[in-house]
Amino acid sequence: PRLSEILSLHDFEAVARQVMPEKAWAYYSSAADDEITQRENHAAFHRIWFRPRILRDVTKVDWSTTILGHKSSMPVYITATALGKLGHPDGELNLTRAATRHGIIQMIPTLASCSFDEIVDAAEPGQVLFFQLYVNKDRSITKRIVQHSEARGIKGLFITVDAPQLGRREKDMRQKFEADDPSEVSKAKQGNVDRTQGAARAISSFIDPSLNWADLEWFRSITKMPLILKGVQCWEDALEAYDRGLNGVVLSNHGGRQLDFARSGIEVLVEVAAKLKKKRGVTLPIDTFQVFVDGGVRRATDVIKAVALGATAVGIGRPFLYAYSSYGAEGIDKALQILHDEFEMNMRLLGSRTIREIVPDMVDTSNIHMH
Ligand code: FNR
Predict the structure, then answer these.
(1) Active site includes 254?
(2) Residue 322 catalytic?
Protein backbone atom coordinates (compact mmCIF):
# COMPACT_ATOMS: atom_id res chain seq x y z
CA PRO A 1 0.00 0.00 0.00
CA ARG A 2 0.97 3.60 -0.54
CA LEU A 3 2.05 5.54 2.52
CA SER A 4 -1.02 7.75 2.20
CA GLU A 5 -3.16 4.68 2.90
CA ILE A 6 -1.49 4.08 6.26
CA LEU A 7 -3.84 5.25 9.00
CA SER A 8 -2.47 3.85 12.24
CA LEU A 9 0.71 2.46 13.75
CA HIS A 10 -0.80 -1.01 13.49
CA ASP A 11 -0.87 -0.66 9.70
CA PHE A 12 2.94 -0.48 9.56
CA GLU A 13 3.22 -3.90 11.16
CA ALA A 14 0.88 -5.45 8.62
CA VAL A 15 2.89 -3.97 5.75
CA ALA A 16 6.26 -4.87 7.29
CA ARG A 17 5.26 -8.49 7.61
CA GLN A 18 4.69 -8.55 3.84
CA VAL A 19 7.68 -6.59 2.62
CA MET A 20 10.52 -7.10 5.10
CA PRO A 21 13.26 -9.68 4.50
CA GLU A 22 12.46 -12.79 6.51
CA LYS A 23 15.47 -12.53 8.78
CA ALA A 24 14.76 -8.91 9.68
CA TRP A 25 11.09 -9.62 10.31
CA ALA A 26 12.05 -12.57 12.52
CA TYR A 27 14.41 -10.46 14.63
CA TYR A 28 12.17 -7.40 15.00
CA SER A 29 8.87 -9.15 15.54
CA SER A 30 9.99 -12.02 17.70
CA ALA A 31 9.42 -12.32 21.43
CA ALA A 32 10.20 -14.89 24.10
CA ASP A 33 8.76 -18.42 24.18
CA ASP A 34 5.06 -18.37 23.31
CA GLU A 35 5.01 -14.56 22.94
CA ILE A 36 2.23 -14.25 25.50
CA THR A 37 3.76 -11.19 27.12
CA GLN A 38 4.21 -9.49 23.77
CA ARG A 39 0.53 -10.00 23.01
CA GLU A 40 -0.47 -8.86 26.48
CA ASN A 41 1.58 -5.65 26.24
CA HIS A 42 -0.87 -3.97 23.93
CA ALA A 43 -3.93 -5.86 25.21
CA ALA A 44 -3.36 -4.56 28.75
CA PHE A 45 -4.16 -1.04 27.58
CA HIS A 46 -7.60 -2.32 26.61
CA ARG A 47 -8.47 -2.89 30.26
CA ILE A 48 -8.16 0.80 31.10
CA TRP A 49 -11.09 3.07 30.26
CA PHE A 50 -11.45 6.83 30.13
CA ARG A 51 -13.54 9.18 32.23
CA PRO A 52 -13.51 12.26 30.00
CA ARG A 53 -14.51 15.77 31.10
CA ILE A 54 -16.83 17.94 29.04
CA LEU A 55 -17.51 21.60 28.34
CA ARG A 56 -14.01 22.84 28.71
CA ASP A 57 -12.69 25.14 26.02
CA VAL A 58 -10.48 22.74 24.07
CA THR A 59 -9.80 24.97 21.09
CA LYS A 60 -6.11 24.84 21.90
CA VAL A 61 -4.48 21.66 23.10
CA ASP A 62 -0.78 21.14 23.76
CA TRP A 63 0.77 17.71 24.33
CA SER A 64 4.40 18.83 24.53
CA THR A 65 6.25 17.98 27.73
CA THR A 66 9.66 17.73 29.40
CA ILE A 67 11.56 14.49 29.89
CA LEU A 68 14.44 14.52 32.42
CA GLY A 69 14.36 18.29 32.03
CA HIS A 70 14.43 18.32 28.22
CA LYS A 71 11.68 19.49 25.90
CA SER A 72 9.84 16.94 23.84
CA SER A 73 7.02 17.59 21.38
CA MET A 74 5.08 14.69 22.89
CA PRO A 75 5.37 12.35 25.88
CA VAL A 76 6.95 9.72 23.63
CA TYR A 77 10.55 8.78 22.94
CA ILE A 78 12.10 6.35 20.49
CA THR A 79 13.30 3.45 22.61
CA ALA A 80 16.47 1.45 22.01
CA THR A 81 16.18 -1.40 19.52
CA ALA A 82 19.27 -3.27 18.33
CA LEU A 83 20.37 -4.02 14.76
CA GLY A 84 18.74 -1.12 12.94
CA LYS A 85 20.25 -2.05 9.59
CA LEU A 86 18.46 -5.37 9.35
CA GLY A 87 15.40 -3.47 8.14
CA HIS A 88 16.95 -0.64 6.13
CA PRO A 89 20.48 0.32 4.99
CA ASP A 90 20.44 3.61 6.93
CA GLY A 91 19.57 1.76 10.14
CA GLU A 92 19.32 3.87 13.30
CA LEU A 93 20.09 7.06 11.38
CA ASN A 94 16.51 6.96 10.11
CA LEU A 95 15.40 7.31 13.73
CA THR A 96 17.94 9.99 14.59
CA ARG A 97 16.89 12.20 11.71
CA ALA A 98 13.20 11.73 12.42
CA ALA A 99 13.74 12.51 16.12
CA THR A 100 15.45 15.76 15.12
CA ARG A 101 12.69 16.72 12.68
CA HIS A 102 9.93 16.05 15.19
CA GLY A 103 11.51 17.31 18.39
CA ILE A 104 11.54 14.01 20.22
CA ILE A 105 14.28 12.07 22.00
CA GLN A 106 16.00 8.96 20.69
CA MET A 107 17.56 6.33 22.94
CA ILE A 108 20.63 4.89 21.23
CA PRO A 109 21.12 1.14 21.80
CA THR A 110 24.45 -0.42 22.82
CA LEU A 111 23.93 -2.87 19.96
CA ALA A 112 23.19 -0.38 17.20
CA SER A 113 24.19 -1.34 13.67
CA CYS A 114 25.56 2.15 13.08
CA SER A 115 28.40 3.17 15.35
CA PHE A 116 27.57 5.30 18.37
CA ASP A 117 29.55 8.25 17.00
CA GLU A 118 27.90 8.02 13.61
CA ILE A 119 24.51 8.35 15.29
CA VAL A 120 25.56 11.24 17.53
CA ASP A 121 27.12 13.00 14.54
CA ALA A 122 23.86 12.66 12.59
CA ALA A 123 21.90 14.49 15.29
CA GLU A 124 21.44 18.24 14.98
CA PRO A 125 23.12 20.43 17.61
CA GLY A 126 20.83 20.59 20.62
CA GLN A 127 19.13 17.32 19.79
CA VAL A 128 18.68 15.33 23.01
CA LEU A 129 19.84 11.71 22.98
CA PHE A 130 19.74 8.99 25.62
CA PHE A 131 21.90 5.87 25.68
CA GLN A 132 20.81 2.32 26.49
CA LEU A 133 23.56 0.32 28.18
CA TYR A 134 24.19 -3.40 28.26
CA VAL A 135 26.77 -3.91 30.98
CA ASN A 136 29.86 -5.81 29.84
CA LYS A 137 31.55 -8.43 31.99
CA ASP A 138 34.68 -6.38 31.43
CA ARG A 139 33.89 -3.23 33.39
CA SER A 140 36.74 -1.30 31.79
CA ILE A 141 34.84 -1.57 28.49
CA THR A 142 31.63 -0.40 30.17
CA LYS A 143 33.44 2.50 31.81
CA ARG A 144 34.89 3.60 28.50
CA ILE A 145 31.50 3.41 26.76
CA VAL A 146 29.72 5.30 29.54
CA GLN A 147 32.28 8.07 29.78
CA HIS A 148 32.48 8.42 26.02
CA SER A 149 28.71 8.78 25.81
CA GLU A 150 28.73 11.45 28.51
CA ALA A 151 31.52 13.31 26.71
CA ARG A 152 29.39 13.21 23.53
CA GLY A 153 26.52 14.90 25.33
CA ILE A 154 24.18 12.00 26.11
CA LYS A 155 21.53 13.20 28.57
CA GLY A 156 20.47 9.96 30.24
CA LEU A 157 21.94 6.50 30.80
CA PHE A 158 19.33 3.73 30.65
CA ILE A 159 20.84 0.57 32.10
CA THR A 160 18.99 -2.51 30.90
CA VAL A 161 18.28 -4.75 33.89
CA ASP A 162 15.88 -7.31 32.44
CA ALA A 163 18.38 -9.21 30.33
CA PRO A 164 21.04 -11.10 32.36
CA GLN A 165 20.50 -13.67 29.64
CA LEU A 166 18.67 -13.10 26.38
CA GLY A 167 15.24 -14.65 26.07
CA ARG A 168 14.56 -17.50 23.64
CA ARG A 169 12.99 -15.94 20.60
CA GLU A 170 12.31 -18.93 18.49
CA LYS A 171 11.39 -17.14 15.27
CA ASP A 172 14.77 -15.46 15.42
CA MET A 173 16.63 -18.59 16.53
CA ARG A 174 15.47 -20.41 13.41
CA GLN A 175 17.46 -17.91 11.38
CA LYS A 176 21.25 -18.08 11.27
CA PHE A 177 23.20 -14.93 11.91
CA GLU A 178 25.76 -14.69 9.14
CA ALA A 179 29.30 -13.49 9.64
CA ASP A 180 29.22 -11.01 6.81
CA ASP A 181 25.86 -9.56 7.68
CA PRO A 182 26.02 -5.84 6.92
CA SER A 183 23.73 -5.10 9.81
CA GLU A 184 26.03 -6.69 12.33
CA VAL A 185 26.84 -4.43 15.26
CA SER A 186 30.04 -2.51 14.81
CA LYS A 187 32.82 -5.07 15.43
CA ALA A 188 30.17 -7.31 17.05
CA LYS A 189 31.49 -5.20 19.87
CA GLN A 190 32.41 -7.60 22.53
CA GLY A 191 34.32 -10.68 21.41
CA ASN A 192 33.43 -14.09 20.08
CA VAL A 193 29.89 -14.84 19.11
CA ASP A 194 27.87 -17.97 18.59
CA ARG A 195 26.20 -17.61 15.22
CA THR A 196 24.03 -20.70 15.34
CA GLN A 197 21.13 -19.30 17.36
CA GLY A 198 19.81 -16.21 15.67
CA ALA A 199 20.78 -12.58 15.83
CA ALA A 200 19.83 -11.86 19.41
CA ARG A 201 21.93 -14.60 20.94
CA ALA A 202 24.86 -13.94 18.63
CA ILE A 203 25.32 -10.38 19.76
CA SER A 204 24.57 -10.64 23.44
CA SER A 205 27.11 -13.05 24.90
CA PHE A 206 29.11 -10.23 26.53
CA ILE A 207 26.29 -9.17 28.88
CA ASP A 208 27.15 -9.59 32.58
CA PRO A 209 24.63 -11.70 34.52
CA SER A 210 26.34 -10.79 37.82
CA LEU A 211 25.05 -7.22 37.65
CA ASN A 212 23.43 -6.29 40.97
CA TRP A 213 22.24 -3.36 43.09
CA ALA A 214 25.68 -2.73 44.59
CA ASP A 215 27.09 -2.05 41.10
CA LEU A 216 24.91 1.03 40.79
CA GLU A 217 27.13 3.01 43.16
CA TRP A 218 30.01 2.35 40.80
CA PHE A 219 27.98 3.81 37.93
CA ARG A 220 27.27 6.88 40.04
CA SER A 221 31.03 7.25 40.60
CA ILE A 222 31.92 7.17 36.90
CA THR A 223 29.24 9.46 35.44
CA LYS A 224 27.08 12.47 36.21
CA MET A 225 24.43 11.47 33.66
CA PRO A 226 20.98 10.69 35.07
CA LEU A 227 20.80 6.93 35.75
CA ILE A 228 17.60 5.10 34.86
CA LEU A 229 16.91 1.37 35.18
CA LYS A 230 15.25 -0.07 32.08
CA GLY A 231 13.22 -3.20 32.68
CA VAL A 232 11.73 -2.81 36.18
CA GLN A 233 8.73 -5.13 36.60
CA CYS A 234 7.30 -4.73 40.10
CA TRP A 235 6.77 -2.02 42.71
CA GLU A 236 9.36 -3.48 45.09
CA ASP A 237 12.19 -2.87 42.62
CA ALA A 238 10.83 0.54 41.63
CA LEU A 239 10.86 1.64 45.28
CA GLU A 240 14.34 0.20 45.74
CA ALA A 241 15.51 2.32 42.78
CA TYR A 242 13.79 5.34 44.31
CA ASP A 243 15.40 4.75 47.71
CA ARG A 244 18.83 4.34 46.15
CA GLY A 245 18.59 7.72 44.50
CA LEU A 246 18.27 6.62 40.90
CA ASN A 247 16.79 9.17 38.54
CA GLY A 248 14.08 6.95 37.18
CA VAL A 249 12.85 3.59 35.98
CA VAL A 250 11.37 2.22 32.78
CA LEU A 251 8.55 -0.20 33.57
CA SER A 252 9.16 -2.59 30.72
CA ASN A 253 9.40 -6.24 29.80
CA HIS A 254 11.64 -5.58 26.79
CA GLY A 255 8.79 -5.79 24.33
CA GLY A 256 7.98 -9.31 25.53
CA ARG A 257 11.39 -10.53 24.42
CA GLN A 258 12.67 -11.63 27.83
CA LEU A 259 10.59 -13.36 30.49
CA ASP A 260 7.38 -14.66 28.96
CA PHE A 261 4.45 -14.05 31.33
CA ALA A 262 6.03 -10.89 32.68
CA ARG A 263 3.26 -8.33 33.12
CA SER A 264 2.88 -5.32 30.87
CA GLY A 265 4.52 -2.05 31.89
CA ILE A 266 1.20 -0.18 32.03
CA GLU A 267 -0.14 -2.70 34.52
CA VAL A 268 2.99 -2.39 36.68
CA LEU A 269 2.65 1.40 36.56
CA VAL A 270 -0.67 1.21 38.41
CA GLU A 271 0.92 -0.47 41.42
CA VAL A 272 4.15 1.56 41.30
CA ALA A 273 2.21 4.85 41.43
CA ALA A 274 0.05 3.57 44.30
CA LYS A 275 2.96 2.25 46.37
CA LEU A 276 5.11 5.34 45.87
CA LYS A 277 2.24 7.33 47.28
CA LYS A 278 1.39 4.99 50.12
CA LYS A 279 4.87 4.01 51.26
CA ARG A 280 6.97 7.04 50.33
CA GLY A 281 4.38 9.80 50.31
CA VAL A 282 5.16 10.94 46.76
CA THR A 283 2.69 11.42 43.95
CA LEU A 284 3.76 10.86 40.36
CA PRO A 285 4.86 12.57 38.22
CA ILE A 286 7.88 13.91 40.09
CA ASP A 287 10.98 15.54 38.62
CA THR A 288 13.51 13.72 40.78
CA PHE A 289 12.37 10.21 39.94
CA GLN A 290 10.73 9.84 36.58
CA VAL A 291 8.76 6.77 35.67
CA PHE A 292 8.58 5.60 32.07
CA VAL A 293 6.69 2.78 30.42
CA ASP A 294 7.26 0.87 27.22
CA GLY A 295 5.75 -2.11 25.47
CA GLY A 296 2.77 -2.32 23.16
CA VAL A 297 2.20 1.42 22.86
CA ARG A 298 0.44 1.87 19.51
CA ARG A 299 -2.01 4.75 19.99
CA ALA A 300 -1.98 8.19 21.57
CA THR A 301 -4.71 6.86 23.85
CA ASP A 302 -2.17 4.32 25.18
CA VAL A 303 0.27 7.15 25.89
CA ILE A 304 -2.43 9.26 27.51
CA LYS A 305 -3.36 6.39 29.86
CA ALA A 306 0.26 6.08 30.99
CA VAL A 307 0.53 9.84 31.50
CA ALA A 308 -2.71 9.89 33.49
CA LEU A 309 -1.26 7.24 35.78
CA GLY A 310 1.92 9.26 36.40
CA ALA A 311 4.37 8.30 33.67
CA THR A 312 6.56 11.10 32.33
CA ALA A 313 6.71 9.53 28.88
CA VAL A 314 6.51 6.22 27.07
CA GLY A 315 8.91 4.45 24.74
CA ILE A 316 7.88 3.08 21.36
CA GLY A 317 9.97 0.42 19.62
CA ARG A 318 8.67 -1.85 16.87
CA PRO A 319 6.28 0.56 15.11
CA PHE A 320 9.17 2.84 14.15
CA LEU A 321 11.26 -0.12 12.96
CA TYR A 322 8.36 -1.36 10.83
CA ALA A 323 7.73 2.16 9.50
CA TYR A 324 11.27 2.75 8.23
CA SER A 325 11.80 -0.84 7.09
CA SER A 326 8.71 -0.50 4.89
CA TYR A 327 8.85 3.12 3.77
CA GLY A 328 12.26 4.52 4.76
CA ALA A 329 12.51 7.86 6.52
CA GLU A 330 9.10 8.99 5.29
CA GLY A 331 7.55 6.08 7.12
CA ILE A 332 8.70 7.37 10.50
CA ASP A 333 7.54 10.88 9.64
CA LYS A 334 4.15 9.40 8.92
CA ALA A 335 4.12 7.39 12.15
CA LEU A 336 4.89 10.49 14.19
CA GLN A 337 2.34 12.56 12.29
CA ILE A 338 -0.31 9.94 13.06
CA LEU A 339 0.57 10.14 16.75
CA HIS A 340 0.35 13.95 16.71
CA ASP A 341 -3.06 13.81 15.04
CA GLU A 342 -4.25 11.25 17.56
CA PHE A 343 -3.02 13.39 20.46
CA GLU A 344 -4.85 16.45 19.24
CA MET A 345 -8.16 14.69 18.82
CA ASN A 346 -8.01 12.56 21.95
CA MET A 347 -6.96 15.39 24.25
CA ARG A 348 -9.91 17.42 23.00
CA LEU A 349 -12.28 14.52 23.55
CA LEU A 350 -10.86 13.89 27.00
CA GLY A 351 -11.07 17.55 28.02
CA SER A 352 -7.35 17.97 28.77
CA ARG A 353 -5.63 20.98 27.28
CA THR A 354 -2.16 20.21 28.57
CA ILE A 355 -0.24 17.19 29.80
CA ARG A 356 -0.80 18.40 33.39
CA GLU A 357 -4.53 18.23 32.83
CA ILE A 358 -4.33 14.53 32.06
CA VAL A 359 -5.02 13.37 35.61
CA PRO A 360 -5.58 10.01 37.35
CA ASP A 361 -9.34 10.63 37.66
CA MET A 362 -9.56 10.46 33.88
CA VAL A 363 -8.84 6.74 33.84
CA ASP A 364 -10.70 3.82 35.32
CA THR A 365 -8.20 1.11 36.31
CA SER A 366 -10.61 -1.11 38.20
CA ASN A 367 -9.94 -3.94 35.74
CA ILE A 368 -6.24 -3.93 36.63
CA HIS A 369 -5.28 -6.29 39.39
CA MET A 370 -2.96 -4.67 41.93
CA HIS A 371 -0.37 -6.80 43.65
C1 FNR B 1 14.38 -4.26 21.63
N2 FNR B 1 14.53 -3.82 22.94
C3 FNR B 1 15.81 -3.61 23.44
N4 FNR B 1 15.97 -3.14 24.70
C5 FNR B 1 17.20 -2.93 25.21
O6 FNR B 1 17.32 -2.48 26.35
N7 FNR B 1 18.31 -3.18 24.45
C8 FNR B 1 18.23 -3.66 23.18
O9 FNR B 1 19.24 -3.88 22.52
C10 FNR B 1 16.92 -3.89 22.65
N11 FNR B 1 16.78 -4.37 21.38
C12 FNR B 1 15.53 -4.55 20.85
C13 FNR B 1 15.41 -4.97 19.54
C14 FNR B 1 14.15 -5.10 18.98
C15 FNR B 1 14.03 -5.53 17.55
C16 FNR B 1 12.99 -4.82 19.74
C17 FNR B 1 11.62 -4.93 19.15
C18 FNR B 1 13.12 -4.41 21.05
C19 FNR B 1 13.35 -3.52 23.78
C20 FNR B 1 12.85 -2.10 23.54
O21 FNR B 1 13.71 -1.13 24.07
C22 FNR B 1 11.48 -1.89 24.19
O23 FNR B 1 11.50 -2.33 25.52
C24 FNR B 1 10.35 -2.59 23.42
O25 FNR B 1 10.64 -2.62 22.05
C26 FNR B 1 9.04 -1.89 23.62
O27 FNR B 1 8.01 -2.60 23.04
P28 FNR B 1 7.38 -2.28 21.59
O29 FNR B 1 7.14 -0.78 21.48
O30 FNR B 1 8.36 -2.78 20.60
O31 FNR B 1 6.12 -3.05 21.64
Answers:
(1) yes
(2) no
Q: What is the pLDDT along the chain (371 residues), one digit of tens a residue?
A: 999 999 999 999 999 999 999 999 999 999 999 999 999 999 999 999 999 999 999 999 999 999 999 999 999 999 999 999 999 999 999 999 999 999 999 999 999 999 999 999 999 999 999 999 999 999 999 999 999 999 999 999 999 999 999 999 999 999 876 645 646 565 445 555 566 677 777 778 899 999 999 999 999 999 999 999 999 999 999 999 999 999 999 999 999 999 999 999 999 999 999 999 999 999 999 999 999 999 999 999 999 999 999 999 999 999 999 999 999 999 999 999 999 999 999 999 999 999 999 999 999 999 999 88
CA 79 to ligand 1 centroid distance, Å: 7
- Please list the residues that pair with 232 across neighbouring strands: 251
Peptide bond into 285 cis (omega under 30): yes
Query: Crossing angle of helices 318-327/22-29, nearest 10°?
Result: 160
Report the residue among 165, 190, 254 best suited for mutation to probe ligand 1: largest number of ligand atoms under 8 A from its CB: 254
87 lines ligand 1 (CB under 6 A): no
Q: What's the ipTM?
A: 0.99
> Residue whose CA is closest, atom 1 of ligand 1?
81
Instruction: Say if ligand 1 is within 6 A of residue 41 CB.
Output: yes
Which residue is catalytic, options 162, 181, 237, 302? Answer: 162
HSE of 250 in the Cβ direction (CA atoms, 13 Å)? Answer: 32
pTM here is 0.96
134 classed as catalytic: yes
CB of 317 sitting under 6 A from ligand 1: yes
Q: Whose CA is nearest to atom 10 of ligand 1?
A: 81
SS3 call for 76: strand
